[in-house]
Specification:
Blueprint lengths: L15 H20 L3 E2 L5 E3 H7 L5 H6 L2 E3 L5 E4 L4 H10 L9 E10 L11 E10 L4 H17 L5 E7 L3 H16 L7 H9 L10 H7 L11 H16 L5 E2 L11 E9 L7 E7 L3 H4 L7 E7 H10 L12 E5 L2 H16 L4 E3 L6 H10 L4 E5 L1 H6 L1 E6 L5 E5 L4 H20 L2 H15 L1
Helix pairs in contact: 1-5, 5-9, 15-16
The structure holds adenosine-5'-triphosphate and magnesium ion.
Amino acid sequence: MALLTKAPRGTQDLLPKDSGKLQFVEGSLLDTAKRYGFQEIRTPVFEHTELFLRSVGETTDVVQKEMYTFQDKGNRSITLRPEGTAGAARAVLEHSLHNDALPVKVSYLTGCYRYEKPQAGRLREFHQFGIEIFGAEKPAADAEIICVANEALAHLGVKNLQLQLNSIGCPACRAEYHKALRAYFEARREDLCDTCKGRLERNPMRILDCKSPVCQDIAKDAPNMLDYLCDDCKEHFEGVKGFLDAAGLSYVINPRIVRGLDYYTRTVFEFVSQDIGSQGTVCGGGRYDGLMEELGGPRLPSLGFGMGIERLMLVLKNQGAELPEDPPCNVYIASMGDAAAKEAFRIAELLREEGFSAQCDLVGRSLKAQMKYADKIGAQHTMVLGDNELAAGKANLKDMATGEQVEVDLGEGLIDVIYRTQLEKELANISQAGGEADIAALLSGIQNREE
Ligand code: ATP
Ligand code: MG
């Protein structure tokens, strides 16, 4: 029975009281991407399992342990998407977007599914904001996606993030590096965890990413990929750093960043926070030049990142960030009697048409109970309509925070008065928060309205 009222492990409900903040954050992220020329793409929650085997890679934790895979009723193997890149890449090829102007720049906000051990910052259903660039080979592209992540996070006021950067080379120079790594870890094979013993054969770089303290300790003195980069990869990496320097971004080189997924080449990066415990990577990404060919498409050097929304929200919360929220109700119109209820209903509709949020009684409460409700839902203003108000065609508009009242005409002038009252409130809030640009935007809004 308890199952009926308990969400599956590793999932979270978004409750109405938190949705305003999340909508603000998500809107801000997509908006930042838009300023860099990325347009949203939406792909299915599930894809053919084969797509993820090919793109994420058979040696990854995601494919080996974490995928939600099932047979559908037509006996196809289907997998809930564990990340956003594969679906976006598939869609680009399927719709031949790469035959239009290159590079193709897309953004997305999607649910992702991984069967992991749930803990702080690690869920089985989580959400990613991501961007991808398809068909851009130059270091400026690597630097641009890093700048998008940086700006998206800065715009939300996230502090104390460290940008960690590495290059994992190309298949050519990585082969040499794998040899050196294998030799290094082979000598310490006995001490490695069981998973890493397996990684030793298939993909020794993955050991660098192992979370076990013993393996981490062994990995400390492992050979460094940067010493093995071929000339082209070295030049590319220098190029990326040059653009980041030009944009004024600071970063640290972390040779142990290899990223979880198989398809990465050259640049890999993470934005890491110290404020949310051990799952501190808020955003991770890099270049995956081989992926599109792997999926049967043309050679199309590509790159992107994924940002964990739940981790981002956790950082914002732990840093005490103040996120603007739309008030749930600008005006609550209370009423007494049938005639007043209809008038309240009419005025509420009028206000909504004008873009305000307005509510009136839906459950036949007494006036006192209506006012209590208005208070509970955080209504900014209230108006009471009774026989007297209907007869006079006037009512008092009460500011719930200050208790101030102004008399308003229920006819013609009503909207204007409410509009002005509301504006004054917003201006006061904004100037308290020091948002000069927002004030300018509001004022130009007023002007447009008055014209
Ligand atoms: P980790 O090393 O933390 O497992 P990862 O390499 O598996 O990360 P990616 O596949 O690169 O992560 O996903 C990009 C981002 O998505 C991560 O940086 C993180 O913010 C977020 N993320 C990944 N897995 C989870 C999860 N299980 N729960 C919540 N967020 C996640
Ligand atoms: Mg992971």
